Amino acid sequence: MDTTRCGILSISWVLGLLCLINAEQGRLTDVPAWPFNYTECNPTSATKDEVPKLSTKFTIKIEGKTDNADSAPIMLFDSEGFYEEDGQRGATIVHQHGVKSIFLYDFISGRAYDIEGHKCQKEELYEKGCNAYAVFIAELAGHSNVTSRCNYTLGPVAYLGDTNFTVRNIPVRKWQQCVFDGRTNITFLSTYYYAKSGIQAPGGTEVKDGENPIRFESRALNGVPQGQSGPRVGSMNTYDFTYYQPSIDDESVFLPPEGTFCPDWMRENKTMPQMPDQFTLSMLNIAQNAKSVNNIRLNFDYRNQLVSFIADTVNGTHFPPVATRQNRTLYRTVHDYNSGLAFTMPVDVWLMGGRKCAISAITNSSLDAAGTTEGNNSVVHLRHAASLFGLNRTGWVYVGMKNFTNMPCYVWANQRNGTTQQTVTEMYWLHEDWTTNVTSVLMGIMQYVTRTDGTTKEVYQTIVSDYNTFPFQWRTFDVDACLKNGTSTLITFNVKVDNGTEVIQRMSSFETGMRNAISTLIDTTPLRLTDILIAKGDSNNSKQIWMTVLEWPQNITGSVANATIQRTGAQLIQDLQSRFVNQDLKLNVSYAGKTKVVTLNHGSFQTGPDLVRPTTPVTPTGSTTPAPPGPPQPQIEEGYSGGSMAGLAIAMIIIGGVAGLVAGFLLWKRNTGIAYQIYD
């Protein structure tokens, strides 16, 4: 047994005995006499008095020393212990020889978890008979049969008084008791020291009798023979309680620490929430070792197969983002899974050689993309919201409640094992008491990447903010800057709605609904339908729809195998027109939170080079207002040519030179005196 584990078991044994001495008082009549025939077990001057009980919730800190009374070196360790009766859980943390070891005790499931580094090993509490920490957790959990199961026998308790007893210059009360371990046939003399009443605790409060444990000592009255593992005669364990508090400041001490995955953790079975089909959120991504920070704004629309990113790095569609320290600019990327294309637009167009947009095929390296194989081809499609950030992986385990950015959150953990590294991911979902509706809110993500040798490679922290599920404005996915460089065609048609006033009041929603409905009807991406305008018809429930059909780009970079072939603008227009040439067309349009039937009136479709877009769109009040001004028209002005300007410059130089000579001559003629004199 290594020394660190010895330290863990020792502190657990101490705490177990603190509970055992009170739990088994009524059973001493059945104890055989021979284990307690030692003089130390029967002090003549002692009186019978129970050892004080600890609180039902407490925190302790211990400095321990173990002397095995042989040639082995004395072991020193620092320990912390935590217990909560209501949650039926406990924890022990030991620091020894620069190594931190943790034991977590789950009284409900009857399991213990041994954690060292980022490794978590499950153990049964009573596996292979019983061990010292099983005594601790079983008694704190209220299991009265711990003595028989662990084969411990307790002798009578003797109170030795409070006269002339001090520990670390602290006046104390003293108890003594013998404990027989039936597994090793060793009897231990246990001594307990508690602070006397009247002692001033930190903060000025007065300590009551039995409220603060000060020291525990355990000495072996007999021992194992030489050559066997175990305590020798006279071996001594001393534990000084340096801190005691009848409460717990941070209850996360009962849970696996950050970056540690316990696959068999079964405190509570809780299903992790799922992301909705439409949402928007902002992510602050921090790579702690690389000292890199990235910001991403994600807009996700599974229904319309559109995703947009606004990021301060060109790799903003990756998660976690590729670490970069370059001078960042703001990039906007739109993924259109209707066509399989990605449109990337920087704020500063000069960064891309003056081009406003880069068009490429979507790759499966993006956080929203998933690759599948169909026949001999690799196809990229949009992930469902439930599979973003690895939420659809198997093996997610509910850990419990922890704080993330000072907010209470439910935590789920998962681990992926690779050939050279492993990644532990933790998802933090805000507690429902802090949400304004029934929607679950994702608060953050932690990712711990470690190498196979256990060393940390990187830690990624993602802080989520501005999470909501409100309907999107169309400008969220607008890529007109990428598509308007080609040919565009204006079309118009008349529709009949059941409530014209509602259409006017919810104009933006109706425009988006019409765009999505028409694009679905003619099987194209909604990005090709732009500049939608709703004009007045011949009645309140009649509206004239104007929109522009954009041509599809040809300058696509990357593998076009993942892109869906799009029809030309002329083919799309012909398809739409043919659907209501001779009869009305009923179309389901979703707007204002509802799906309603809109009738496209037959014979109303118009297009052609002579078609002019009106300048007076309908306002929410039903009146008209001038359309916003378009882009400034180029102006042509007459002026001098380059040759004329050069000739004029030469002429001005000659004229200036002649004028200078004339002025100099005139000044010389005015000087009638002697220019200089010579003196002898």
From TrEMBL:
<dbReference type="InterPro" id="IPR058831">
    <property type="entry name" value="LolA-like_dom_2nd"/>
</dbReference>
<feature type="region of interest" description="Disordered">
    <location>
        <begin position="608"/>
        <end position="639"/>
    </location>
</feature>
<feature type="transmembrane region" description="Helical">
    <location>
        <begin position="645"/>
        <end position="668"/>
    </location>
</feature>
<feature type="domain" description="LolA-like">
    <location>
        <begin position="257"/>
        <end position="483"/>
    </location>
</feature>
<keyword id="KW-0812">Transmembrane</keyword>
<protein>
    <recommendedName>
        <fullName>LolA-like domain-containing protein</fullName>
    </recommendedName>
</protein>
<keyword id="KW-1133">Transmembrane helix</keyword>
<feature type="compositionally biased region" description="Low complexity">
    <location>
        <begin position="614"/>
        <end position="625"/>
    </location>
</feature>
<dbReference type="Pfam" id="PF25898">
    <property type="entry name" value="LolA_2nd_metazoa"/>
</dbReference>
<keyword id="KW-0732">Signal</keyword>
<keyword id="KW-0472">Membrane</keyword>
<feature type="signal peptide">
    <location>
        <begin position="1"/>
        <end position="23"/>
    </location>
</feature>
